[in-house]
Amino acid sequence: MFFMQRAILEETSMKRILFVIFCVLSLNMTAQIGNYNQFPMMRPSHILDDKLDDISFAYGLRVLESDYNGPLIRLRRDSDNAEEDFGWADNDIVDVDAINTWRAGANVFVVIWYDQSGLGRNAIQYNVNRQPQFTPNAAHPFFRGDGANDFLDTQTSIQVVTNAGNNGSVFGVFNATRRSQHTFGVLRGANRWSTHINWNNGNLYFDPGICCASRRTYGNAAFEGVWTQYSFIKLDSDTLAKRNGITQYSGFYNRGRCTINDNFTLCWARGNQSLYSNTAFTEMIMYRTDVSTADIEEIEQNQIDFWSL
Questions:
Q1: Rounded mean pLDDT of the chain?
Q2: Which stretch of DSSP H or E encloses residue 287?
Q3: Overall domain count for the chain
Q4: What share of the chain is helix, strand, coil (3-state, %, to 5)?
C-alpha cells in the first residue's frame, strides 16, 4: 500500500511539473508571436483587388492592388541624370521621404509610371527633354507636363485600351488647368478619344469618338487648381462625365467610334501636333468597357476618400 501511494504521488507531481512547463512555454510562445503577424494569410485590401476584369491599365502614386509588388514610379534627377525606382511607404503613398533623400534638392522627372494592372502597360518617356516633372508633395505627390512637349506613352493602342475605339472608362485624380490642351488620349482631327481638363474657356470636354457630340462639355472653371476626382465613361450609345462622384452630363452619343490606332498617351493626345497639357496627374485607372454602377461608385468614393478630395 505504501509503495502504491508513493507511485500515485510521484505521478501527480510529474503531471504538475509538466503542466507548469506547458504554461511557461505557452507564455513564451505568446510573447514571441506578439512580435510577428499572427494572421499571416491576411493582407490589407486595396481598391483594385477584385476589379481587374477588363482593365486597361492602373497608374497610381499609391498602391492600388494588393498582389502588386513592383515599384510605383521611376524618376530621373537632373543633377546627374541618374534614375531610380520608388515604391510606397507605410501610408500606401509613393515613398516621398526616400525620393527627397535621393534627389538631394535636385529636380526630378518621370521616366516610367508603372502599370499595376498586371498587364505591363507602363507609361514611359525615355527622352529627357520630354519627361513631365514630378513634385514630391508629402500628402499629394503628382507630376505635370510643361505644356510644350512633355508626355508619357502607354505603349498600347487606343483600340486595345478601349473596346475597339468605342467603350471605355477612366477614373482619375487630376488638378485642372486652363489652356488649349489635350490631357490624355489620341486625336487626329475629329477622330479622337480624348479630354480637355480644362480648355481655354474653363470648360472640361470629353470626346470618346468622332467629334463633336451635342453633349460633350461642362463648366469646370471653379475647379482649376483644385485636386478633383473625375470619371469619363463611354457606354454603347451614351456618354457619362462625373466630377467627385456627381454626374455633370449624360447623353446620347451617335458620332461613331474612334478608328485610329495610335498609342494612348498622358499629358497629350497622340496624333495632334501640339496642344500638350500641364494638367497635374496623381492617379488614373482605365477599363476597356463601361463598368457596373456599383464599381463606378466604389472606385470614385475610394479615390475621393484616400486623397481627401
A1: 89
A2: strand 280-287
A3: 1
A4: 20, 35, 45
Asked whether residue 22 is domain-assigned, the answer is: no
The predicted model scores a pTM of 0.86
Would you say residue 104 lies in a domain?
yes
Neighbouring CB atoms inside 10 A of 40's CB total 7
DSSP run (H or E) holding 152: strand 152-157
C-alpha to C-alpha distance for 249 and 239, rounded to whole angstroms: 8
Which residues 6+ apart lie within 8 Å of 278 measured at CB? 144, 145, 146, 147, 177, 179, 181, 267
Q: Are the CB atoms for 304 and 82 separated by under 8 Å?
A: no
Alpha-carbon distance 180 to 19, whole Å?
Answer: 80
Give the residue numbers spanning the domain of 275: 55-306
169 vs 55: CA distance, rounded Å: 9
What pLDDT score was predicted for residue 16?
Answer: 52
pLDDT digits (tens, 9 = 90+) for 200-214: 999 999 999 999 999
Considering the domain boundaries, does residue 12 fall inside one?
no
**Closest CA relative to residue 110, chosen from 121, 95, 123, 93:** 123
Residue 41 lies in a domain: no
If you count them, how many residues does the chain have? 309
Residue 235: helix, strand or coil by DSSP?
Answer: coil
